[in-house]
């Protein structure tokens, strides 16, 4: 039976049990990934760093099946950052369609402009340069550096955090927000070899997406079920803070989506009276529209008209 991260001596980097956990996990997870990894377009060599970056923006809080058609259309229209940078930001919002969280489209457009201006149109390979791009946080910088350039970085998305929480820490779910302890563990679990580390980042993410899921973990298909601390402990129920649920119906998010849908379809500025038809409650509708304007997703014009942003 494997030791948990709390009952073995500390490793040199200060993470108890990380070396033993890494030895237990690396080979079976990587072997499983070799056999079961999905053939996704951003994993193909021809995707390049720009394709990887686009996918990472789109996949945040959005499932793969919804991303795939938009991703394909996006890369067909804007195969390089400079192609997107040459367009108005509102065109990025329009092409984003119903992926949700449309500020991601503006951030991706801003990153494309910066890449074009600062890096000659090529997505930079250095982690620090990626992190300096607008709209790029620690996760996205690490993901692009790892998946596009084969570098050694901890890539902590929700799926990876859940795998590590169960297999190593022995709890059902990770904390609501990523902690310093999780980052230390992720760094400690990285293989030393760069290419293997990049493969490990993708493999642990895929395991969380396909097998060690939030609601229906399939331990019978899991390559590390035999050493999973949480499973061996009898799968104790989550006893931390309540997990945040995501609601949509009746929220400002839904109203914002309805307003944006009208503007995406329009070829000319839209009068407020047209937007008023999408939601009956006037206070919430006005609040949602004001929020879209404040976020830069909608541009107000004279005579109470609105459009997607041109600048």
| Molecular shape | globular
Termini Cα gap: 59 Å
**Element-level helix/strand string:** HHHHHHHHHHHHHEHHEE
Q: Give the rounded overall mean pLDDT.
A: 93
What is the SS-derived class? Answer: mainly alpha
Helix content: 40-55%
Largest sheet: 3 strands, antiparallel
- Total count of helical runs of at least 4 residues: 15
C-alpha Rg, in Å? Answer: 22 Å
Strand content: under 5%
Strand runs, count: 3
Strand numbers in spatial order across the main sheet: 1-3-2
Q: Any low-confidence stretches, pLDDT <50, length ≥5?
A: 1-12
Features:
single chain; 311 residues; mainly alpha; 3-stranded antiparallel β-sheet; 15 helices; 53% helix; disordered N terminus
Tell me briefly what this model is:
The chain is an all-alpha fold. Helices cover 53% and strands 3% of the residues.
Describe the structure.
53% of the residues lie in helices and 3% in strands. It is built from 15 helices and three strands. It is mainly α. The model is unreliable at 1-12 (pLDDT under 50). It starts with 17 loop residues before the first helix and ends with a strand. It has helices spanning 18-36, 48-59, 64-77, 81-85, 89-96, 103-118, 127-131, 138-149, 158-169, 180-189, 194-210, 229-232, 252-265, 272-275, 282-294, and strands spanning 270-271, 299-301, 305-307. The chain has a three-stranded antiparallel β-sheet with strand order 1-3-2. Strand 2 and strand 3 form a beta hairpin. Helix 5 crosses helix 6.
Question: What's the helix and strand layout?
Answer:
Layout lengths: L17 H19 L11 H12 L4 H14 L3 H5 L3 H8 L6 H16 L8 H5 L6 H12 L8 H12 L10 H10 L4 H17 L18 H4 L19 H14 L4 E2 H4 L6 H13 L4 E3 L3 E3 L4
Helix pairs in contact: 1-11, 2-3, 2-8, 5-6, 9-11, 13-15
């Amino acid at each position: 039976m494997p030791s948990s991260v709390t009952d073995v001596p500390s490793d040199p980097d200060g993470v108890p049990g990380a070396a033993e956990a890494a030895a237990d996990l690396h080979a079976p997870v990587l072997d499983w990934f070799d056999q079961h990894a999905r053939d996704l377009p951003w994993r193909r060599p021809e995707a390049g760093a720009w394709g990887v970056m686009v996918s990472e923006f789109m996949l945040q809080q959005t499932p793969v099946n919804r991303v795939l058609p938009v991703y394909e259309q996006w890369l067909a229209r804007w195969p390089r950052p400079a192609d997107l940078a040459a367009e108005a930001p509102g065109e990025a919002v329009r092409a984003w369609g119903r992926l949700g969280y449309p500020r991601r489209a503006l951030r991706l457009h801003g990153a494309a402009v910066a890449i074009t201006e600062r890096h000659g149109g090529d997505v930079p390979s250095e982690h620090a340069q990626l992190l300096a791009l607008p709209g790029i946080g620690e996760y996205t910088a690490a993901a692009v550096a790892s998946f596009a350039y084969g570098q050694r970085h901890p890539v902590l998305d929700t799926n990876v955090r859940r795998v590590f929480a169960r297999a190593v820490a022995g709890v059902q779910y990770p904390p609501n927000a990523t902690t310093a302890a999780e980052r230390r563990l992720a760094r400690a679990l990285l293989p030393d070899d760069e290419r293997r580390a990049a493969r490990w980042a993708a493999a642990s993410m895929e395991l969380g997406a396909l097998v060690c899921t939030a609601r229906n973990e399939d331990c019978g298909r899991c390559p590390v079920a035999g050493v999973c601390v949480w499973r061996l402990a009898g799968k104790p129920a989550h006893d931390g803070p309540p997990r945040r649920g995501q609601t949509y119906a009746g929220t400002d998010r839904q109203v914002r989506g309805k307003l944006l849908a009208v503007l995406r379809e329009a070829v000319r500025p839209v009068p407020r009276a047209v937007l008023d038809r999408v939601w009956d409650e006037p206070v919430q509708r006005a609040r949602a529209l004001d929020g879209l304007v404040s976020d830069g997703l909608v541009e107000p014009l004279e005579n109470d008209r609105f459009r997607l942003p041109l600048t």
